[in-house]
Amino acid sequence: MGKPSRVNQTTASDFLLLGLSEQPEQQPLLFGIFLGMYLVTMVGNLLIILAISSDPHLHTPMYFFLANLSFTDACFTSASIPKMLANIHTESQAISYSGCLTQLYFLLVFGGLDNCLLAVMAYDRYVAICQPLQYSTAMSPQLCALMLAMCWLLTNCPALMHTLLLTRVAFCAQKAIPHFYCDPSALLKLACSDTRINELMIIAMGLAFLTVPLTLIVFSYVRISWAVLGISSPGGRCKAFSTCGSHLTVVLLFYGSLMGVYLLPPSSYSTERESRAAILYMVIIPMLNPFIYSLRNRDMKEALGKLFGSGKTFSLPWL
User: Fold this and answer.
1) DSSP three-state, residue 182
2) Distances in Å between the alpha carbon of 212 and those of 115, 116, 120, 208?
3) CA distance 108 to 110
4) Which of helix, strand or coil describes residue 194?
5) 143-164, pLDDT tens digit by residue?
6) Residue 35, class by beta-carbon neighbours within 10 Å (0-12 exposed, 13-18 middle, 19+ buried)?
7) pTM, entire model
8) Which residues are CB-neighbours of 66 under 8 A, at least 6 positions away?
9) What is the radius of gyration, based on Cα positions, of the chain?
10) N or C: which end of the chain has fewer CB within 10 A?
11) Residue 126: how many CA atoms within 13 Å on its side-chain side?
């Protein structure tokens, strides 16, 4: 007897995540690919956190925020991929109403936190290069902890508000979401009630999570460029730029994929384009970040070498 086809059994409150493909023969390949990428993402980011925690030489503001970025990337990917893998494995596309809203909340929180941390890391590089004499004061452990707390607050409050506003929305009988995760815009298209407040909230969150951090990053790197170009020694310029190379690479990849979704004009393939861009910034970039920061950074290579070469006791920086 042949393998049964994928089923779409749902209850009245369920949504359907259509995923990346509805072809049954493609599901084993998708499961293997995304399981592999998810495992690499989790192991890579965990190693970054452990390496930074175990090496006292890396207990600095830059690596403190890098450890938090790795934690955020791991959580961001975990908010969507395990559910997609479970649906493929069980041959079901269903996600409960509460599960969809919970997933949406964590995606908004950790997606927004990614943006905020990239902006804070750009500010850290700006202070280190443009104001080196004030670095220890401007980036003290207390101020770094305060900036991290502000990042969490600025992402949690809008994400919670947006999720609560969605509980007021009545959805139609057709609840198929053409993505592998609960996309907020796709959810609003399924609504049978007024969604103007929710749409305004999406615009406000887009400005808060994307425009403001990106503006701060651009401003920081403009100032950094002016400062570095003022260095007379070519070796000094290369050394200064090298401390920003990994961060700048991640910024270009992350915001480039987001702009591919939100700035390009819509087309008949917009849903497919959005899914591909979502894979890039929700799966591939979090998977690549540990490699980008470790392969281009001598201190990280040494810390990883120590991590594999000795059984140290791990402790979080500054705690």
Assistant:
1) coil
2) 9, 9, 12, 6
3) 6
4) coil
5) 999 999 999 999 999 899 999 9
6) middle
7) 0.86
8) 48, 52, 121, 293
9) 21
10) N
11) 15
